Structures are given as C-alpha cells and as structure tokens.
Amino acid sequence: MTIFLTDSDLARLHGDYGSAAQMAMSILVQMAEIFGATELMDITGAHIDSTIYIGEAGLEFAERLASLGARVAVPTTLNVSGLDEHHWQEWAVPAEWARNAHRQMLAYQSMGCIPTWTCAPYQTDWRPKFGQQIAWGESNAIVYANSVLGARTERYPDLLDICCAIIGRVPAVGLHLTENRAGDLLFVLQDISPSLQSNESFYPVLGFLIGKIAQDRIPVITGLLVKPSEDQLKALGAAAASSGTVALFHIIGETPEAPTSEAAFQGRQPSRVVPVTLEMLRTARQELTTAHGDQLDMVVLGSPHFSLAEFKELAHLVAGKRRHPSVQFLVTSSRAMIYLAEQAGYLGALRDFGGQVTVDTCILATPMLPSGIHTLMTNSGKYAYYAPGLLNTIVTYGSLADCVESAVVGRVVRDETLWAG
Amino acid sequence: MGRIIHGKPVVPGEAQGKALVSSEPISFWGGYDYHTGEIIDRRHPLSGQVAKGCILAVPFTRGSSTTTAVLLEAIRAGTAPAAILTTGVDSFFALASVVAREMYEKPIPIFAITPQDFSTLQSGDHITITEAGRITIF
C-alpha cells in the first residue's frame, strides 16, 4: 500500500519545517502505512496521553521533541501527568520520580499545549463538537468524545498523539470515517429496574460487562428506561474501555449518532444480539471486586476526574459526617474543576469530612499511596479494574453512597437492595 | 522438523524464542512490569509469567492507550518480548516498535497472523521468525 502525501506533508517529512516536525512526520507516516491509510487528513484538536510518566524512554521521547523545538499545530489539551505539581510532597511520591515526571510535564508544556492536566478533557472549555475531527489519547476520553459528543477520533496510543498534534494531521482511517462508525453488537437490557438504572453504580458495571463481550467491536445499547447523565455515560465508557477496547458505543435514542436503531447500525443488521440480565450484571459487579472481607484502608474517587456535578453529589452525601480515622478518603480531579467546586461551596463539606483532593494526576499515574494502603474502595470501574495490577492493592467496588458510608464506619459496607432484583 | 506458518510483517525483523500464548487480549498498562518483563494483570491468564525474550502471542491490545509507552520502556530496558504476534495489525504494539527504531534503532519484530494459525500456537512452543515473516514452530 502506498500512501499519498501532499507537497506540504512531504516538506515536513524532508525536514523543511524543522527536525521536530520531521521526526513527528516520520513516525506518523510509518504508522499510517501500518494502518493501511491511503492519505492523511486534517484535525482541529488533540489530547495528549503521553504526559503520563512511565519511565526514562517516555521522558527521553518528550525531551527529544522539545529540544528539537516541537510546537503543536492545533489546540491541544494535556492528560494527567505523573505528578500533582504543587502537592506531591504531601504524599509518598519519591523525589526522583517527581523530578522526572515534572521534566516530562515541562517538555509537553513547552510545545504549546494547554496545561489542563486532566483525563476528562471533555469537562473543559476545549470540549470537541459533533463531527469534529480530533486526535485524542486516553481511552476514557476517546470513547466519550466519539460516543457522547459525536466527535471523531481513532484510539491514539501514547507517543502518536503528540506526533499528530505537531503535524495537525492523522491517517484517514478507522473512526475518522463514517462507514467505520456503525454499530456491530446489540446489547438489550432485560428487566433492569429503573431504580437500579438511575443509580450511578449501574454504569461502570454495565460498561465492564459490555467491554468484556464487545472487545474491539462497536456495541449498541437499547432498553435504557432512564436518561443517563453525562457522568453516568463517562463511567460507562471508562469501564468499557478498560475491560475491552471500546472506542465508540451507541445508545439508541440517546447518543448523537443513534437517534434510531437504523442509524446506529447504518442500516445493517447487528452481528449478534446479547441480552443483558440482572444476573449477568451481578456477576460483573462481583468481578470488579477483588477484595474479600470488610477491611478498608482508603476510599478513592475520581477516575475519570471528578466533575462539578459529582462534587455536588459528594458534598451532599458527606455533609455533617466525619470519616473514620483509620480510613483515608481521596478524590482526584483537575485544577479547574477544584476551583469551580470551591467557588460553588462543595469543598468545605469534603474537608470537614476529612477528605483530601489530588489534582493533575491520579492514583494510577503517580506513586502517591503510602505503603500501608492495601485495601481500596471506589465507585470507579476504571480504578477497580486497574488498581490490583498497577498498585498491588485489592479493591471493593461500590456506589458513591457505599463509599461514603464505609469511610464513616471504617469497614466495607454495601447496600445490596438495588442489586437484589 | 517444524511446522511453518506465514505472518504479515507489521514491523519486520528476525526473532526466536519460547512462545507465550493467550487468546485473551492484554493491556500493558497495569499488565506488564517493564522492570522485569512479568505479566502483572491479575485477571489475565498469563499473570505471573515473564514475557522477556519470549515470542508473545495475544490477539490484540485492550484498554489503556498507555500500552505503547510501557512497551517502549520495556524495549529500552531490555525486558520486552523478543517478538509479538497478533491476529490483526495492532497499532499500539506497532507504534512502540516504530518509536524504538526512531529513538534507539532497536525495534522488535511484530507480525500479524490469521486467527486460524493463531489458534494452533501453544505456550512452550519454540518459534523462529524470519524477516519476511516465515514462522517456524518446533
């Protein structure tokens, strides 16, 4: 397969626009050939996941680009970094890690990116619009942009996202093209009560289940009896993009490319119809929990980063209460969202409760947890999915109310009535 | 004599090693410890196995877009698989290898094979791969 490159693409490839653009274009063209693209296409925004500090290689890559004078060509937001820039010393982050993670933050900022430091860029002013072509990294952001907003991005891996942002172009393949956005599997909710569907803890479980079954195919959901909130859709997508490779889902009558079943499947038939029963959801909910017993060291919330609406809900739940002294309580979010939550008066109740806040990063991306933390509880499907492997911890999955109640009594308690059927 | 299958070179190169095979997709973020090469996703069937120097065969990557960064670290640290076989062209693995060529001039070979051929592979097989994608299984 030969890829067609414009004169301007070729000029970048030959170094006429500097060494950074040449390096970015070289990687982009090699990847376009691997994707089987026949041409590149323009984008109007990017979100960079390469900001997460993993080790020396990622840092060397960022600093190589920065030292060559790289500049992004389109408005580009930054994902979480490996460091809460101004509060890391309050936690167990080693100084050497902090130095390296900070160098990586500075390298990406020097390229002209917007220092949003959030895995929920759709909760910022740079939220993309319907039909907008973008290059986003971060699996939860990708699935949200495609599914909930109707913007168009492929699953951009770390390191390629920044190359696309520097060039302002992407391989014209995959989810950038209408014909590749049709649904494939149909998931039909069967006899799931509206009260369960209204609870936020339903959505990560549904997402986890759908991701496991759909893997890399596009799931379409029908049978929802309530209108899910943006936070519920973000939780669904984040879980589906953890247990599977879901980059786009449709909900018939809800998401922008699925006003009807016909539209969701672009006139085709589903390859398979999967009934979703309460029993399947109960099993999935159990799989999100790796802990046995009721021991609890820490409650962690905010993956993806907490929104203003979630801070409001949490403020309501913790009002007048106090966490048990043996249980830490942490919320991860962005600087901008913390500012808004403070303005709105939601942080006072959280502080009085004994809760803490971390910005710029999350527990998965920075080694902040003290060594005595072994058992976690969360309402996040993504935290529940990744914490066992990344942090060598065991996790209980529960609703937001369960998390607050458990923090108060000092051990895991869960309200099972919603899931009893 | 070995059995021969053919792979499509995604990132070409020669390799040989012991096969480590799972039909379960994998995320390297939270799934691969680049300091040791151990697979650490406790929900994955290969959990606890060390993939360093092996021919890793998984159908594709799932989940986090950080998988690429972790594989790049593993290549730099010398803890990566000797080669990776997938059932389709997996761009997350491919990119790590492309960037490793750009940065360190040491890509790892990545080949796509058919699901039928994939299903015949078993952990413990000894595999050799030529530049052109001739894969011999002993």
How would you describe this protein?
Chain A is α/β, with parallel strands linked by helices. Chain A has 3 domains: 7-176, 2-Layer Sandwich (Aconitase, domain 3), CATH 3.30.499; 182-287, 3-Layer(aba) Sandwich (Aconitase, Domain 2), CATH 3.40.1060; 298-413, Aconitase, domain 3, CATH 3.30.499. Helices cover 40% and strands 12% of the residues of chain A. Chain A has 17 helices and 14 strands. Chain A has a 5-stranded parallel beta sheet, with helices on both faces. In chain A, helix 8 runs parallel beside helix 9. The termini of chain A are far apart. The mean pLDDT of chain A is 97. With 138 residues, chain B is an alpha/beta fold. Chain B has one domain: Phosphohistidine domain (Glucose Oxidase, domain 1), CATH 3.50.30. In chain B, 22% of the residues lie in helices and 27% in strands. Chain B has helices at residues 67-77, 91-104, 115-119; strands at 3-6, 8-11, 15-21, 32-33, 38-39, 55-57, 83-86, 110-112, 126-129, 134-137. In chain B, the strands form 2 sheets. An 8-stranded mixed beta sheet of chain B has the order 1-10-9-3-6-7-8-2. Chain B has a two-stranded antiparallel sheet with strand order 4-5. In chain B, helix 2 links the parallel strand 7 and strand 8. In chain B, helix 1 (67-77) crosses helix 2 (91-104). Chain B is globular and about 35 Å long. Chain B starts with a strand and ends with a strand. The model of chain B has no long low-confidence stretch (mean pLDDT 95). The A-B interface holds A 23, 26-27, 30-31, 34-36, 49-50, 52, 54-58, 60-61, 64, 137-139, 142, 155-161, 211, 215-216, 241-245, 287, 290, 364, 385-386, 388-390 and B 10-11, 25, 27, 29-31, 34, 40-43, 60-70, 72-73, 75-77, 89, 91-92, 94-96, 98-99, 102-103.
